[in-house]
Design brief:
Bound molecules: heme C
Structural class: mainly alpha
Distance between the termini: 84 Å
Largest sheet: none
CATH architecture of the domain at 59-168: Orthogonal Bundle
Order of helices and strands: HHHHHHHH
CATH topology of the domain at 59-168: Cytochrome Bc1 Complex, Chain D, domain 2
Strand content: under 5%
CATH class of the domain at 59-168: Mainly Alpha
CATH superfamily of the domain at 59-168: Cytochrome c-like domain
Radius of gyration: 26 Å
Number of helices: 8
């Protein structure tokens, strides 16, 4: 009897592990599996719901991207509003790292030469898209608290403002307009 029990238990193991030859019958259908064959092209005007940029995979690759959005009054205004909403909490309304939490989390002054002159527009766009070390991402949702809150165009508007408008701000920025 005991032996029978052991035998039954042994026989049951493959079924738990789905290892019987017929366990995979339904899986092996004559159908196209993921990554097989030629992918159907996306319908025109479809957008990636996860907001992942199609051209670059990380900040390094974004470094040399050319800003496709001209620096116009409209772009600067959009960028400024987005900056106040998304960036000022950490970097301060004037970008000078003067918000109440700037020093606590080590947010840097965005008006100094390092950001204004050394960092390329693509790098700043990449920083907003993918985040930095402490700074969260605004172009891709990730496990570090990143989101896809800002569209690619919106991120370029922020870049335009950061590089062409931030330095003109008064010491205390006025609210969104
Ligand atoms: C939650 C706080 C936080 C928010 C919000 C935030 N940042 Fe930052 N940011 C930081 C911190 C901290 C650093 C410095 C450490 C690091 O690189 O992560 C930084 C660094 C940067 C840098 C320098 C990157 C480099 O290569 O050294 C840029 C540019 C920047 N932020 C721009 C922005 C812009 C634009 C926004 C708004 C879209 C923004 N940040 C929103 C915290 C934040």
């Amino acid at each position: 009897m005991r032996r029978l029990n052991i035998l039954a238990a042994l026989l049951a193991i493959p079924s738990v592990a789905l290892a019987w030859p017929w366990s995979q019958d339904m899986m092996n259908q004559p159908s196209i599996k993921p990554q097989e064959g030629v992918m159907t092209p996306f319908p025109k005007r479809s957008v990636p719901v996860m907001g992942i940029p199609t051209k670059v995979a990380n900040r390094e690759e974004a470094r040399d991207l050319v800003n496709p959005i001209a620096v116009t009054a409209a772009s600067l205004k959009k960028g400024r509003n987005l900056f106040i909403i998304y960036c000022s909490a950490c970097h301060g309304l004037t970008g000078k790292a003067d918000s109440p939490i700037s020093s606590k989390i080590g947010a840097i002054d965005l008006t100094d030469d390092y950001v204004q002159k050394s960092l390329s527009e693509g790098w700043v766009w990449g920083t907003i898209t993918f985040g930095s070390y402490v700074m969260p991402a605004y172009g891709i949702p990730n496990e570090l608290g990143g989101s896809n809150d800002l569209s690619p165009e919106e991120r370029w508007h922020v870049v335009n403002y950061l590089k062409n408008g931030l330095l003109n701000e008064k010491t205390t920025a006025v609210a969104i307009n």
